Amino acid sequence: MPVITLLLEIVGLLLVVFIDPYIKRSHRRIMLINIALIGSLLVQDLLNDYLSIFGDIPPLRTVVSIYGYAVRPVVLLLFCYFIGEERRTVFLWALTGINALIHLTALFSRVCFYISESNHFYRGTLGYSSHVTSAMILLYLVWLSLKVETDRKGLQSIVPVFNGATIIVAVLLDTFIVQTQMGITFLSIAMVNSALFYYIWLHLQFVRDHENALMAEQRIRIMMSQIQPHFLYNTLSSIQALCLSDPEKAFDVTERFGTYLRQNIDSLDQPQLIPFAKELEHTRIYSEIETIRFPSIRIEYDTPDTAFSIPALTVQPLVENAIRHGVRGVENGVVRVSSKLVGGYHEITISDNGKGFDAAASEASGGTHIGIRNVRERIEKMCSGTLTVESVIGSGTTVTIRISVAGGAKQTRS
Q1: What CATH code is carried by the domain that includes residue 156?
Q2: CA distances from residue 295 to 288, 299, 399 in whole angstroms, order as listed
């Protein structure tokens, strides 16, 4: 009955993995291969047990034993692929292949093992090659599991550690207890349970990654909702001020602002990457409104590189920040916006000759302006870019955004 339970567990797991849409394709392929191999090892255990007691066919028992000793290290090695670090398994694959070749010598030599004519099993000089190979793979598996436990916080990381420990205990039991009463080795039982636990573990990873993605998206939407009213409020405030001082300019600014809203409302409503040229248009309209209100401020543009995408409302809040906290109130205040390709990166620079501040002290105390923090987080989350701030009190501030050409930014036509 326990054997039937294990076989049913393997068949059920095989079917579930085959139809499961929530695990990676590479993990599914490895899992299906591994489950099939584990199922074949259960059959191998039963057949080997039968041949050792009732059979009298040494050549067949030899072939069955070769298969078991050659495949078990392969199953252990495939477990490593669920955790990662596939690049480091080349040596272990070579060792596994050598182990298989050593056991194949049992077909014509006694250097590894042989079955006597009386159907007794005897080990040769290299009879423990499978044990040595499996031990090395197990050490690597446990090390990899502990590394995951260190890198990933939470109880989920205990699963691969527990699996590695279970397999080690099973090997020790097989070494000192020849076999279980039902003819299945402890290692095979441990492999069945490990396959099930790894499948559960992969689902836990999927749930964790999905929750992180939802949280990141939620944070982005919250930041967008914070930025949009702030931008609209300042624009309307500028128009309100102009209504009292210069109604004709107020009319012109209102018309520009209306055109801006009609053309760009989609980018305000969608927290997605947009063409840099479109973000530049946002910035130009905002800065035109501000320069009408504050004629002493000048905005300069040098943007030959525009063929990429960035998060919506990225440059505009930084220009707004430079105007409000940098050059406003400064005689002949200048804000410069530039974009260029530098060493495989799209580099956007927003600089001003304003008041400046102690950037290092502000960063250390967590007092960085909310606009800069919002932009930095969206740049990092949405296109794997970076944002740095350099500022000198009395001289001005420079904010630099760098987005990889190959990775984060999506190429677009300007």
Answers
A1: 1.20.1070
A2: 10, 11, 23
Same domain, 23 and 127: yes
Indicate the residue type of 271: P
Q: Which residues contact 144 (CB under 8 A, 6 or more apart)?
A: 80, 83, 84, 85, 160
Q: Which of 31, 43, 377 is nearest to 221 (CA)?
A: 377
Task: Look at residue 220 and tell me if it is in a domain.
Answer: no
Q: Which whole number is the average pLDDT over 326-338? A: 89
160 versus 281: the higher-pLDDT residue is: 281
326 in any annotated domain: yes
The residue segments making up the domain with residue 171 are 2-210
Better-scored residue on pLDDT, 22 or 93: 93
Same domain, 142 and 266: no
* Predicted structure pTM score: 0.56
DSSP 127: T
DSSP string, 195-263: HHHHHHHHHHHHHHHHHHHHHHHHHHHHHHHHHHHHHHHHHHHHHHHHHHH-HHHHHHHHHHHHHHHHH
Are 258 and 122 within one domain?
no
pLDDT of residue 21: 85
Six-digit token string for 312: 């919506």
The SS3 of residue 337 is strand
Q: Rounded to 5 degrees, what are φ and ψ at 401?
A: -110, 130
Number of domains into which the chain is organized: 2
Residues 132 and 79 in one domain: yes
| Distance (Å) of CA 211 to CA 214, 217, 242, 275 | 5, 10, 47, 28
Task: Give the CA-trace dihedral at 177, 180, 185, 190, to 10 degrees.
Answer: -100
Percent of the chain with pLDDT over 90: 29
Q: Is residue 231 part of a domain?
A: no
Q: Radius of gyration of the chain from Cα atoms?
A: 33
